[in-house]
Design goal:
With about 130 residues, this protein is of the alpha+beta class. The chain is built from five helices and six strands. Keywords: Metal-binding, Zinc, Zinc-finger.
Length: about 130
């Protein structure tokens, strides 16, 4: 009977060791929780809108984030927000007034002679507007 108790005790110890081993494997394969200092060390906090550069759109007269800026062409120094550029192109294409010049060209505000190229504006426009252009 003593050998049976010793055998059961050894079996229980092996089972416990196996259980601990499996739990360690599982813990090792999991990511650290977000609150740990090791995961924060490699992260960069996202920028707020106040920390991102801005520019002034002369068409809608609003300050916009630089991510929303679109330059008309290499020969034109002006930059406008994407919404104003898209509206300008859509109106010119609908009226059949192509090529599409800089948004300030009509009032004499653009001396660079910038003309928008369809391929440069392709990602901004609906495919129907692009096709008509």
């Amino acid at each position: 009977m003593a050998s049976t108790a010793a055998s059961a005790s050894a079996s229980a110890a092996q089972e416990l060791d196996r259980e601990q081993y499996l739990q360690e494997l599982i813990r090792g394969s999991m990511l650290d929780p977000p609150s740990s200092s090791s995961s924060r060390a490699g992260r960069v906090r996202p920028l707020t809108d106040d920390e991102i550069g801005r520019f002034y759109c002369e068409v809608c007269m609003e300050w916009k984030l630089v991510f929303d800026r679109f330059r008309v062409s290499d020969g034109c120094p002006h930059a406008f927000c994407v919404a104003c550029v898209v509206g300008h192109i859509e109106a010119r294409v609908a009226a059949g007034s192509v090529p599409v010049p800089c948004l300030l060209a009509g009032g004499g505000g653009c001396s660079g002679g910038g003309v928008m190229h369809p391929e440069r504006c392709k990602k901004l426009l609906d495919i129907d507007v692009f096709d008509r252009w």
